[in-house]
Design brief:
The complex is a heterotrimer of chains A (102), B (163) and C (122).
Chain A (H helix, E strand, L loop, with lengths): L3 H21 L3 H26 L5 H31 L13
Helix pairs in contact in A: 1-2, 2-3
Chain B lengths: L1 H25 L3 H21 L3 H25 L13 H21 L14 H10 L2 H21 L4
Helix pairs in contact in B: 1-2, 2-3
Chain C lengths: L1 H32 L6 H4 L20 H23 L1 H4 L1 H23 L7
Helix pairs in contact in C: 3-5
């Protein structure tokens, strides 16, 4: 049997890769991709906890289901914002959008 | 005997997932990043099966690998110039340091903590049990999810409208 | 439990590996057997006929993104519908109204998109 720590370590790796991607990327679409990686990591942790530590309840699985639904809504809206940005400014790079900065 | 197969399956799936994630975090070509992300999604679906959460694995393939990746391909096709000049920002090394610190912290927490009794064998996931929980105990989040999806739809229509 | 589960997915693993091996073997055989002589005429888009004008990449119109979003939202509805259908008889009449509320909320979004002319194929 695989100990639960293995899944937690995998989740930690995925989450950190997502953090690196979000912080170092310039392109809005690539940032959204990295956010998805972080959500994957969270889902792995939730399901692993649900299966190993509370097998009688389905809390973790239901949380993971809601995470997936919310992630879908988030991706749809975030990409729509990126498209709007590209249409108005002909760039998808977030560091070129600095009108509100002073 | 099956223990060996289980462990081997875990390591293969973990390699696929993390390897694809590394590609997503590093590659500059948008289409390659999306294809690698789909590989990562499928690896996670395999891990869900390994955790005997089969319904979630199906959902993962259906929503993530099926629908969300299509949305991302659309977004790439609609932002044609964005494939160029998307090098990393100047914060790259700071981001790397932060990510390394985070992975160190998370691994330390995961290994140090005493997780208590781990009973995987008794776990049996069924979609009908999930449905029952959704309709009884978690009915409010369930309805709120519909409102959230409605908001996402309306927002996208407003955002992408012609003018 | 885990052993049974593993037995069920042996077929999936075999099919996946076989798929990769088949495609890889086909590509490898192609590289091995096909003659390669690069000439200038071969690199053209049309070997005879007009020269292509413009770029090869087609710009899809903006509005098709909304079809993708509607597909995604109703995909999620299907995901929630499946466990609902399985536990429908156990939960009883409440389940019907709860799902009705869910579908009405999403249906309102579809109606809004319809009224805004998103669904027209232009």
């Amino acid at each position: 049997m695989i100990p639960v720590q293995h899944f937690l370590l995998l989740g930690a790796l995925l989450f950190s890769l997502g953090v690196y991607g979000v912080l170092s990327r310039r392109n809005a679409v690539l940032i959204i991709l990295s956010v998805e990686l972080m959500l994957q990591a969270v889902n792995i942790n939730l399901v692993a906890f649900a299966v190993y530590l509370a097998p009688d309840e389905f809390v973790g699985l239901i949380f993971a289901l809601f995470v997936i639904a919310v992630a879908a809504a988030e991706v749809g809206l975030a990409l729509a914002i990126a498209l709007r940005l590209f249409r108005n400014r002909t760039t998808a790079n977030v560091d070129e959008v600095d009108s509100l900065r002073w | 005997m099956t223990g060996v197969g289980e462990v081997a399956a875990f390591w293969i799936l973990a390699t696929i997932t993390v390897g694809s994630a590394v590609v997503v975090a590093l590659v500059r070509d948008l289409v390659r990043a999306v294809v690698a992300l789909v590989g990562s999604f499928l690896g996670v679906a395999g891990l869900f099966i390994l955790l005997s959460a089969e319904f979630l694995a199906v959902v993962q393939v259906l929503i993530y690998a099926g629908a969300i990746s299509i949305l991302m391909v659309f977004a790439i096709a609609l932002t044609p110039r964005s494939a160029r000049d998307n090098a990393e920002t100047a914060m790259r090394w700071l981001a790397l340091a932060l990510a390394l610190a985070m992975v160190g912290l998370l691994i330390a927490v995961a290994t140090v903590t005493e997780w208590g009794p781990q009973a995987k064998e008794g776990f049996q996931e069924t979609a009908s049990a999930i449905g029952e929980a959704l309709l009884n105990r978690y009915v409010l989040p369930f309805e709120v999810a519909s409102v959230l999806l409605l908001a996402a739809m309306l927002g996208a229509v407003v955002m992408v409208r012609e003018d | 439990m885990v052993a049974e589960l593993f037995q069920q997915y042996v077929g999936v693993v075999v099919a996946t590996v076989a798929g990769f091996v088949l495609v890889g073997a086909a590509l490898f055989a192609n590289r091995l057997l096909a003659p390669r002589q690069a000439t200038r005429a071969k690199g053209l888009t049309y070997e005879c006929g007009m020269l292509p004008i413009g770029r090869g990449r087609l710009q899809i119109h903006f509005r098709y993104y909304l079809f993708a979003i509607l597909f995604l939202v109703f995909d999620i509805e299907a995901v929630f519908l499946f466990p609902w259908a399985l536990s429908f008889l156990d939960v009883g009449a409440m389940a019907f109204y709860e799902m009705l509320l869910f579908i009405i909320a999403l249906g309102f979004g579809l109606y809004y998109a319809w009224r805004k002319g998103v669904l027209q194929w232009r």
